[in-house]
């Protein structure tokens, strides 16, 4: 909550009268009249600011963002800024990517810290994570961004095999980790519409994922019980658009389509934030 000084500066209205008020009845009446006028002037200024308009504050104000493989929570930076500008309380999970179980646990810890209803958002691999973690009572809706969405009792490997889209070119090292640290490969697979200099940073900072995570099964799929939205990324070289369309239809999601690479949260952050905002408003009705 802004202090009264912050409100004054935002509205451009000078709060303090030029002269010190005395304790006479007349000056007291004048001060009350002046305060009423000040309130009338300040309120419209507040209502014009993002997130403060009358009737415009979202009922569900908590957003939890879960990143996929080969990246970390900082990949949400521009989406976070956009959502905060809309009045939301936003938190990005830092997945260890060591197993599905570990990523779900990391997400649940963040969900436990939310005060009230929450929209849970998962990108790519995190689709599996939020499908499990989304069973938390605080989660009121789930938004999937070009995400893998297994069914109850199903793993990501089994899902892709059923859809005739096996994982190719992702070979684990001697420690069982899968890397995507070559900038050219990263840009081709994940971020074809992201600036080359930014892709080099992404490749340098990418987190490998444990290959075994893809074989872990979901317990109960939260999308069976929660409303869902799905963002299709049409120029995606990581998850075929045909698989995305099938998944979105299979889970009964509300669908939005975007001409984007797999990393829509970086190449189209405003559109991604708008979709999350829409999900929050509709789920809060």
Largest sheet: 6 strands, parallel
Count of helix runs: 11
Overall geometry: globular
Element order, helices and strands? Answer: HHEHEHEHEHEHHEEHEHH
Describe this structure in words.
The chain is of the alpha/beta class and about 280 residues long. The chain has helices at about 5-10, 25-45, 75-85, 100-110, 125-135, 155-160, 185-190, 195-205, 240-250, 265, 270-285; strands at about 60-65, 90-95, 120-125, 140-145, 175-180, 210, 230-235, 255-260. It has a six-stranded parallel β-sheet, sandwiched between helices. The chain has a two-stranded antiparallel ribbon with strand order 5-6.
What does the secondary structure layout of this molecule look like, with pairings?
Blueprint: H1 4-11, H2 25-47, E1 62-66, H3 77-85, E2 89-93, H4 100-112, E3 118-123, H5 126-133, E4 139-145, H6 156-162, E5 177-178, H7 183-189, H8 196-205, E6 209-210, E7 228-233, H9 241-250, E8 254-258, H10 264-267, H11 269-283
Parallel strand pairs: 1-2, 1-3, 3-4, 4-7, 7-8
Antiparallel strand pairs: 5-6
Helix pairs in contact: 1-2, 3-11, 4-5, 7-8
């Amino acid at each position: 909550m802004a202090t009264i000084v912050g409100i004054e500066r935002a509205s451009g209205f000078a709060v303090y009268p030029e002269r010190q008020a005395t304790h006479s009845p007349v000056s007291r009446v004048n001060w009350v009249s002046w305060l009423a006028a000040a309130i009338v002037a300040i309120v419209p200024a507040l209502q014009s600011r993002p997130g403060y308009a009358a009737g415009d504050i979202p009922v569900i104000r908590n957003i939890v963002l879960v990143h996929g493989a080969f990246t970390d929570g900082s990949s949400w930076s521009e989406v976070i800024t956009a959502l905060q500008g809309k009045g939301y309380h936003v938190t990005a999970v830092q997945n260890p990517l060591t197993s599905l179980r570990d990523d779900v646990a990391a997400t649940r810890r963040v969900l436990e810290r939310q005060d009230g209803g929450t929209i849970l958002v998962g990108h790519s691999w995190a689709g599996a994570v939020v499908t499990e973690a989304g069973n938390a009572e605080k989660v009121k809706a789930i938004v999937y961004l070009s995400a893998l969405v297994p069914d109850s009792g199903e793993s990501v490997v089994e899902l892709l095999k059923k859809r005739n889209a096996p994982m190719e070119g992702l070979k684990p090292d001697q420690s069982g980790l899968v890397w995507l640290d070559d900038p050219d490969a990263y840009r081709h697979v994940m971020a074809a519409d992201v600036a080359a200099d930014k892709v080099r940073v992404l490749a340098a900072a990418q987190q490998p994922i444990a290959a075994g995570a893809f074989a872990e099964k979901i317990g109960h799929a939260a999308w069976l019980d929660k409303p869902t939205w799905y963002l299709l990324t049409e120029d995606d070289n990581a998850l075929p658009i045909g698989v995305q369309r099938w998944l979105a239809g299979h889970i009964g999601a509300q669908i939005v389509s975007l001409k984007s690479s797999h990393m829509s949260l970086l190449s189209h952050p405003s559109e991604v934030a708008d979709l999350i905002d829409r999900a929050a408003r509709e789920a809060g009705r």
